[in-house]
């Protein structure tokens, strides 16, 4: 559907000089009074144009009287008056203006030949400027052509005939720009926020006027992001590559013949900025390129260059993998060691509790054996002197228990702090996925700390219960009094029995 031709055909004109640029299409011609179409015919065709574009037709005579017809205004009366005031021999100047805007990533192209000539006019920097202007407004653009059935496209730009269907782009342009900023320093990236993918044609046709220019611009930006630094100043494209050998090159972009298409540079660029560590891959690529360019021109690199880069990268990865495995094993060993140290806290508490119990029972056994020959052994064991010593032991044991608990808290805190330092130390060496896999969001060590405290609390409870029982026995004499009472009863019974036997024997 060629809307422009349909519009121009209303004026019975065979050939019209059309100038179409990015934002506007202009055409002008002269017709006789008899060739002026009706207002309704003009309005009907204008309304067929996309809403994103504004079509204005201006009619003027030799006296500079004029009338405008567009989609936004209804001025049929003025149009009719203008036509009626014309003389039969008068010529009418017609100016067609179509103001174009990008809407929903779509830009209209009504005359492909004129549009392509205007867009590709001038040197390479001029062309780069125009595409920068477009891609600053939208990350992707569909050039909707109304007079060309042949289509072609890159990752971010599609030239196709008019279609109601929507074009889907699956290329993340902003993410790739961010990667390029990280891997290289292109001083003109704010002025020229372009990528090689913008100009790498995935499909095209023979004779396409964009083919040669796009391939050269693709090479320019591939070089810009492969190099350490690059800039475009006064039509001069400067690059610097620092590798095994440092060198700088300048290309005069005002001379189209200075730049030739190099597929290998685009392949190297794609390899650098697809997966993996961009910075490491860029450094390695520059090292290999700097050596290869001792013998060949940078724009004449062949596929052996990328093969060499990939081989070197494979060796680099092998060394890195060995270091990576070593780091993971070391971290795992550290975590296991931390858990063992935390587990040793329970063993320490058991040893201290055992030593405390041994000390108490050693004292009690000493008292027992000391009074073994005494006639009143039980009374001596529960004497006030022994009670005093037992109370001293209980108080000392409580203080010892408190210090032990404090030591446990300090030990746990130190181990937890050391664990956090370990995470911070190896955080830069491991990515988020590895950190989650190894540290498991601290689940392992937190579970170990929780189970350790549970065991420690049980031991502390046993310790406290033991001391309470010991205090009750010796301070409240619950058992002591019973034993002494039973002993006295037995002694009284024996004495009474002996006296009765003696009395029976006396007569």
Percent of residues in helices comes to 55-70%
> End-to-end distance, in Å?
156 Å
Strand order of the largest sheet: 1-2-5-3-4
Strand content: 5-15%
Biggest sheet: strands, sense, closure?
Answer: 5 strands, antiparallel
Low-confidence stretches: 478-484, 494-507
How many DSSP helices? 16
* Average of per-residue pLDDT values: 82
Give the tally of β-strands: 13
What class would the helix/strand composition place it in? Answer: alpha+beta
**Topology as a string of helices (H) and strands (E):** HEEHEEHEEHHEEEHEHHEEEHHHHHHHH
Q: Assign an overall shape.
A: elongated
Round the Cα radius of gyration to an integer and report it. Answer: 48 Å
Transmembrane segments: 357-382, 388-409, 458-479
Keywords: Membrane, Transmembrane, Transmembrane helix
Give a brief rundown of this model.
The chain is of the alpha+beta class and 507 residues long. The protein is built from 16 helices and 13 strands. The strands form 3 sheets. Strands 1-2-5-3-4 form a 5-stranded antiparallel β-sheet. Strands 6-7-9-8 form a 4-stranded mixed β-sheet, with no helix packed on it.
